[in-house]
Amino acid sequence: MAAARTAVIALTALAPVSWGSTYAVTTEFLPPDRPLFTGLMRALPAGLLLLALARVLPRGAWWGKAAVLGALNIGAFFPLLFLAAYRMPGGMAAVVGSVGPLLVVGLSALLLGQRPTTRSVLTGVVAAFGVSLVVLEAAGGLDTLGVLAAVASTAAMSTGTVLAGRWGRPDGVGPLALTGWQLTAGGLLIAPLALLVEGAPPALDGPAIGGYLYLALANTALAYWLWFRGIGRLSATQVTFLGPLSPLTAAVIGWAALGEALGPVQLAGMALAFGATLVGQWAPRARVAAVSAPPFGSASQNGRKDSMDLTGPALRR
Question: Does residue 290 contact residue 239 with C-beta atoms inside 8 Å?
Answer without folding.
Answer: yes
